[in-house]
Each structure stands twice: as C-alpha cells, then as structure tokens.
C-alpha cells in the first residue's frame, strides 16, 4: 500500500442512511455508516468489549451500536455509552477502536490511508468526469493483489491476444512507444499499436505528435480511465481487499445521451460489453504468479511494458516517503 493517499473503497450507494455496512479493505474488517449530518464514518468492525462484529448492529442517533451489549461508537472509534454502566457513566479512553477518515465524492467512498495528523490533499479524480457524464457500473472481485489488476490496464501488449475478438481485433501486435508522462501522481500514456509488416517498433522519443495518439490515465493510488473519446470514457477503481483479492468497480461514462430512459439503456449496453472485456482479462490475470507485483521481479519486460515499469517505479518511490 502507498501511505498517505485517498483510496476509493466503495460505491457511495453501498453506504445507506441508517444502516451499517461491513466490508474488508486493506486486509482489515471495517464498518461504514452515515451520521446525522450524512457524513461518512469508518471504524474497525470489532467491538472493543467482546469482539463482536459492529456491522451486525444498527445506527442510532448517528452512532454505531454493537449488537451484543449495546456499546455505542462515534466516528472516531470512541465508545460514548455503555448501557450496563448506566446513562450517567462516562466510558474511559480505553474503550475505543481504530478509525479512518472517510469522505464521499464522485460517487465513491474514499478512505485516507495514512497519518491522520498530516495535511491531506484534495481527493484526486479525473477532471472531465467530475460533471456532465452519466455512468453505468459493474462490480466484481478478482483473486489478485490490486497491483496486478492495475497493471492489466497499463498493459498495451496483451490486446491482440487476450482481446482478439473484441478490442484487440486487427492483429495489431507491434507496439510503437508507449510515451509516458507524469503530472504528480497522474500518469498519462500514449500508444500506437500497428500491424507487424517487418518494421521495428518506434521508441518513445521517435513518436511525433504523440498527444494525438490513443491515451489512457492512471491516477494513483487506485483509479484508472480509458479516454476513448471526448464523449466516452471507461473508468475503474481497483480496491485493495487484502493481499490476494481486489474489488473492481468498472464504470461506463458517457455524455452523448441525456434523455433519462435512453441514457440508462446506453449505459447498460456499455456495461455489457465492458463485462465481456473484463472477463477476457480476468481469465488470464488470475493465473499470474506471484499475485502481487513489485519493482524487482523475476520477469523480462519489453519496450511495450513501459507504463507498467513506470507504475512500479512511482509506487516504490511513494512507498518510501
């Protein structure tokens, strides 16, 4: 994990008013809910009293209430009331569980994975998707570390093999570039896949007017978008569940249909194709070993793997901070 980052962890609709939502993220069991101001709260899903799962309880007056003995928790993980000790009792500081800072933005729940006392930047999201687009969404879990799931979307070499019947049609096996550019933690990479007629692939510095080429973006730590056209984008959040599992939220964004019923139909249709493509990827990616990628591995990468190499370098750099 990269420390001191905002991670997209849930679809905002998964945390409903008046209900507790339990899930595993970052290899930890967490519980989410909305308080009386509709702010997102997130604490460890384990009561400090007898270890019961808080997510099996309920929300009362904006606080999480344990189903076992009624201990009440606020958003900081502090127990505010112990029924067995009476209404006037004040629980000691030892009655608390770990908590996370969480926010809702752009249709996701985000968790600050890092030092609570450090200054926190704004949540980074793709500028053009912040307004004006509607989307449909599919969600599924893969048995891989989130780094493998991300790298699959940075892999421009696999298209004519894994996606031969869909987005990889045309037998364009030779990869010119790619060109990779960073703006802080935002990577944009440009690529030209062409048919192999005996020529050598162009190196990144040999690609002229590369900004006109097909491009994709990775926003660290865990979101990605395919910039298909000004009116159509595919976006994904690769959410770390634990060391061997990733929850993927894949969204089909479009702004060319605005009539409500037609818009919904278009988004559903887009999701159908996205699911086919995603499952073509999954069939192969879940076989990769080890399940987690790292900067130095027993692999022999090629020129077309430059976005993957750059991702690993940047991730390693940020992990050291």
Radius of gyration, Cα only, in angstroms?
22 Å
Number of beta strands: 17
How far apart, in Å, are the first and last alpha carbons? 12 Å
> Order of strands in the sheet with the most strands?
11-17-16-15-14-13-12
Summarize the structure.
The protein is an alpha+beta fold. The chain is built from four helices and 17 strands.
Describe the structure.
- This protein is α+β, with helices and mostly antiparallel strands and 321 residues long.
- It has helices at 146-154, 159-162, 260-285, 306-319, and strands spanning 5-11, 21-25, 28-34, 40-44, 58-60, 63-65, 72-73, 79-81, 99-105, 108-113, 134-142, 174-183, 186-194, 214-219, 223-229, 232-242, 245-254.
- Helix content is 17%, strand content 34%.
What order do the helices and strands come in, and which of them pair?
Layout: E1 5-11, E2 21-25, E3 28-34, E4 40-44, E5 58-60, E6 63-65, E7 72-73, E8 79-81, E9 99-105, E10 108-113, E11 134-142, H1 146-154, H2 159-162, E12 174-183, E13 186-194, E14 214-219, E15 223-229, E16 232-242, E17 245-254, H3 260-285, H4 306-319
Antiparallel strand pairs: 1-10, 2-3, 3-4, 4-9, 5-6, 6-7, 7-8, 9-10, 11-17, 12-13, 13-14, 14-15, 15-16, 16-17
Q: How would you describe this structure in keywords?
A:
alpha+beta; six-stranded antiparallel β-sheet
């Amino acid at each position: 994990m990269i420390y001191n980052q905002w991670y997209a962890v849930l679809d905002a609709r998964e945390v409903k008013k008046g209900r507790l939502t339990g899930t595993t993220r970052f290899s930890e069991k967490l519980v989410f809910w909305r308080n009386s101001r509709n702010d997102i709260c997130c604490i460890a899903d384990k009561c400090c009293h007898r270890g019961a799962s808080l997510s099996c309880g309920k929300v009362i007056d904006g606080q999480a209430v344990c189903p076992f003995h009624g201990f009440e928790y606020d958003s900081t993980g502090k127990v505010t009331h112990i029924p067995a000790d009476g209404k006037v009792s004040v629980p000691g500081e030892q009655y608390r569980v770990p908590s996370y800072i969480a926010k809702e933005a752009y249709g996701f729940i985000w968790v600050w994975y890092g030092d609570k006392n450090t200054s926190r930047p704004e949540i980074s999201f793709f500028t053009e998707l912040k307004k004006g687009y509607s989307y449909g969404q599919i969600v599924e879990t893969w048995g891989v570390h989130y780094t493998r799931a991300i790298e699959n979307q940075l892999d421009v070499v696999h298209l004519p093999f894994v996606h031969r019947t869909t987005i990889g049609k045309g037998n364009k096996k030779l990869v010119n570039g790619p060109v990779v550019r960073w703006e802080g933690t935002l990577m944009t990479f440009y690529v030209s896949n062409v048919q192999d007629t005996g020529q050598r692939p162009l190196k990144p510095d040999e690609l002229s007017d590369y900004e006109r080429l097909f491009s994709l973006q990775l926003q660290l730590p865990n979101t990605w978008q395919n910039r298909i056209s000004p009116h159509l984008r595919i976006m994904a959040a690769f959410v770390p569940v634990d060391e061997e599992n990733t929850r993927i939220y894949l969204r089909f964004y479009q702004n060319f249909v605005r009539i409500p019923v037609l818009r919904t139909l278009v988004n559903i249709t887009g999701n159908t194709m996205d699911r086919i493509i995603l499952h073509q990827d999954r069939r192969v990616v879940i076989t990769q070993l080890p399940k987690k990628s790292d900067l130095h591995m027993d692999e022999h990468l090629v020129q077309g793997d430059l976005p993957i190499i750059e991702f690993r370098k940047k991730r390693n750099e940020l992990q050291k901070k």
